[in-house]
Amino acid sequence: MMREKFVLFGDSLTQEAFRENGWGASLANAYNRKADVLVRGYGGYNTRWAMFLLHHLFPLDTTKQPLATTIFFGANDAALFGRTSEKQHVPIEEYKENLRKMVQHLQICSPTMLIVLITQPPIYEEGRRAYAISLYGENARKLPERTNEAAGQYANACVEIAKEMGVPYINLWSKMQETDGWQTKFLRDGLHLTPEGNAVVYQEVIKVFDEAGLSADKMPYDFPHHSKIDPKNPQSSFQQNVCHVPME
Amino acid sequence: MMREKFVLFGDSLTQEAFRENGWGASLANAYNRKADVLVRGYGGYNTRWAMFLLHHLFPLDTTKQPLATTIFFGANDAALFGRTSEKQHVPIEEYKENLRKMVQHLQICSPTMLIVLITQPPIYEEGRRAYAISLYGENARKLPERTNEAAGQYANACVEIAKEMGVPYINLWSKMQETDGWQTKFLRDGLHLTPEGNAVVYQEVIKVFDEAGLSADKMPYDFPHHSKIDPKNPQSSFQQNVCHVPME
């Protein structure tokens, strides 16, 4: 039996998943000796560019498909057209179609894979502006390259696709805004996550995994717990254990 | 081309590598888009029990051998005979022989694999005692189940094997004791690592990886950086990129 794996597919919010208190690291810790957490996060990528990776990252003919995959895009797709990050902009209808194709492809890879769509977090425009000034000083753009309103539209579109496709979703955009002070509590530059923001993502992901029957405490440990090993005859403890999980 | 992987093989000090500021999480973050960090840590295990896992975790016939593996045992082997954790005790000569066999097996798996031996950290006996009292109150054992002296002997034995086998090592036992206040700065219960202790392990591992030519900045990113993507013709950016790294 091979070790289960969870794949985190997304943009910088996923690429950073092993930073301080990162949601990916927390997930890897919760599922230690149960599943590997593999990060496939690509900073700055929108869904249009991510589509070029899809079949490379998730080949149909792999020996072991992921048990679960999170799809966490939108923050770059929603960058506004005509502003400084317009290169990353993807029209909302194309964004939806790309998400649809991603989910479809993963469902073909494995009909039993848990696929979770995560919307982008809210945008704190003042935080983005302060960040731009810290980088470019007086040359910083005067108009926001991302707005919370646009973020909300893309988040709604993501939820719409999840419902259409019948897969679970996390509406991070609305969830985070339920908490007073979300602007700086959860976001460090108006877009990327603080340790507290990472904790929100982790809690929401765990909730969806639990509801799908993938809670860590229901999954078997690989190899016996040390307290179950007979020190006088350790070999017997390992022979009894049927759950051997080689690397791949 | 498949994604490179680093495997962390060890006891609880490895199993916990994705906890807060964990050395495994920091490694995964440093090598994002370059290598997967897979934890194979087994809390409470000594090298004798770990030998039963070796061929399962590191099969000879896998499609992709790890690029690097850390071997981080000793904390349980060095538990004293005749004390409360004697079940975990492994005589020092057997500990050495087990480490030797692990290195030999990995060298057969891949002659080019970077194999790093890590000694156990020092033991703060007062911290162990306080921890036992917190768990068992008055029933806590009166005599330490681990001593710093024994830990030092096992650490020396580990270094000896590394030199004999010609592989790099990290003498965590001596390294940590160079810092004043190591007892509680680096250890949370006299044995397991605090966030600061994890940072020491991470820094030492990175140093060895760098010296072996595996520093993150020398390894290629998978797929182009977003700034290199031509928004008018993204396909061309992905065709040029030869470093496609499917999941396995």
From TrEMBL, chains A, B:
InterPro entries: GDSL, Iah1-like, SGNH_hydro_sf
Pfam families with a match to the protein in the record: Lipase_GDSL (PF00657)
The keyword Cytoplasm appears for this protein: no
Keyword terms of this UniProt record: Hydrolase, Lipid degradation, Lipid metabolism
A GO BP annotation: lipid catabolic process
GO terms assigned for molecular function: hydrolase activity, acting on ester bonds
Alphabetized CDD domains for the sequence: Isoamyl_acetate_hydrolase_like (cd01838)
Keyword flag Ion transport: no
Superkingdom classification of source: Eukaryota
Membership in a protein family: Belongs to the 'GDSL' lipolytic enzyme family.
Protein name, entry field: SGNH hydrolase-type esterase domain-containing protein
Organism: Lotus japonicus
